[in-house]
Amino acid sequence: MNDAQLLRYSRHILLNELGDTGQDCLLQSHALVLGAGGLGSAAALYLAASGVGRITLIDHDTVDLTNLQRQIAHTTERIGQLKVASARTAMLALNPDVDVRTISELADASLLNQLLADADVALDCTDNFQTRQALNAACVTHGVPLVSGAIIRLDGQLTTYDVRDAASPCYACVFPPEDVPEEVSCSTMGVLAPLVGVIGSLQAAEALKLLTGLGQSLAGRLQLLDGRDLSWTEMRLQRQSDCPVCSARPST
């Protein structure tokens, strides 16, 4: 690290659990963020501010006035812009040294398999079941840990799927691909803005932990947030031996 980086990341370096070795690891890391909406805004901004060296941001949508209640990477002046371009502007304003690659496409299995080949961690910040399944399958194929977040109304979820851990399920173990749920959206159900930031920020924190080996990951544990009283509940998750996605991949 140069002098400017030592100063920028000094609060990280002061942490005994992270230090300059951990910060160097972040600078050399590649994180993929799928979704530049509410969750992705908070996650991507914190990843950039924290010095994750390469960030790939994927989203096919444009900024709309209704997004601005919770999608803090975007501004009124950038309404109509591609979300990935708007978010990149915000990320580079925080940290111009970060390499932010943007892809304005509807992510499919082929694209995700290509992008996950050299990623160190992936963050699921989308709200589409099929896209979540495609991202999970690509992460299983390439052995990349997946930090998954979701929120609707006043209820949030957060966990990590990491098939490098023999006990950790993948997303398909918990939500089988054939069990397609009824799609729900904040555009019809509503969502409390700061809670989106809570889950997105924690996704970024979990990603930083995975990249540096700090602490214990959420693999095998699903955290549920009830925004009505700000309480957390934890559920244990198990890998399914008959999972159509990860059962054929040997544990490492």
Characteristics:
252 residues, alpha/beta, Rossmann fold, eight-stranded mixed sheet, 18% strand, globular
Descriptive account of the structure:
Helices cover 37% and strands 18% of the residues. Strands 3-2-1-4-5-6-7-8 form an 8-stranded mixed β-sheet, sandwiched between helices. Helix 4 runs parallel beside helix 5, helix 4 (38-50) crosses helix 10 and helix 6 runs parallel beside helix 7 (129-142). It has one domain: 3-Layer(aba) Sandwich (Rossmann fold). The longest helix is centred in the C-terminal third of the chain and has 20 residues, at 193-212. It is an alpha/beta fold. A hairpin with a 2-residue loop joins strand 5 and strand 6 (155-161). It has helices spanning 3-8, 10-13, 19-27, 38-50, 83-94, 109-116, 129-142, 171-174, 186-189, 193-212; strands at 30-34, 54-58, 99-103, 121-124, 146-152, 155-161, 221-226, 231-236.
